[in-house]
Amino acid sequence: MLKLVVCVSGGGTNLQAIIDAITDKRITNAEIVGVISNNKNAYALERAKNHGIPAYCISPKDFASREQFNQAFLQKMQELDPGLIVLAGFLVVLPETMIKSYHNRIINIHPSLIPSFCGTGFYGLKVHEGALKRGVKTTGATVHFVDEGTDTGPIILQKAVMVEADDTPEILQKRVMEQAEWEIMPKAIDLIANDKIEVKDGIVWRK
Ligand code: GRF
After folding, report:
1. Which pTM does this prediction carry?
2. Is the CB of 181 under 6 A from ligand 1?
């Protein structure tokens, strides 16, 4: 059974999609052993508690230095001992030691088709603002492994979503979540939990 720790910062709809997929057996061989939020007001924490999942808030704001936060975050992660760390709308940059210790065992969801509209500064609504400003007709979402760069790790799954003529960033964000994120995040976890993919030279292959 693959132990998952899901890291969140906000509403937690991707967390909910994972919980629902485990309940419906669209994800097998995996369980969520903990949810960590950097934001004590994140509704994601309520979602975790409602499902009896241990939920923790570890915020950089509660520590004197970034180093102290990193240590507390790493320590909690080590205690929970996940086989896979899932970043589901997590807005904190991970400590480099965590990325190294969990090589190809951290995944992230990004709300665009990488390599478009990704990298430093592209988070939340800014991604969709960028897509609309450029006038792309198709956008989407990407699940990828996390490496030392920003949105640069091996791509696991992508799904395209159409941009409509009168979209606002908010409307597009909602469509990308509903049509892509909530589908490919659980799918990626199921592939990993059932040992269906491998990474060779930075590329993800089906086994
Ligand atoms: C999603 O759009 C995700 O791609 C992003 O932040 C949002 C998280 O939403 N980076 P939620 O907290 O899962 O509802």
Report:
1. 0.97
2. yes
Q: Which numbered atom of ligand 1 lies nearest the CA of 12?
A: 12
Give the pLDDT confidence of 90-137 residue by residue, as tens digits. Answer: 999 999 999 999 999 999 999 999 999 999 999 999 999 999 999 999
Architecture of domain 109-207: 3-Layer(aba) Sandwich (3.40)
d(CA 85, CA 97): 14
Candidates 51, 103, 110, 128; catalytic one: 110
Structure tokens at 32: 């969520």
Residue nearest to atom 11 of ligand 1 (CA): 12
- For residue 12, the CA-to-ligand 1 centroid distance in Å is 7
List the domain boundaries for the chain: 1-102, 109-207
Domain 1-102 and domain 109-207 have a common topology: yes
Mean pLDDT value across residues 39-56: 97
Write down the CATH number for the domain with range 1-102.
Answer: 3.40.50.170
Helices 169-176 & 125-134 angle (0-180, nearest 10): 110
Is 110 a residue of the active site?
A: yes
Beta carbons within 10 angstroms of residue 89's beta carbon: 24
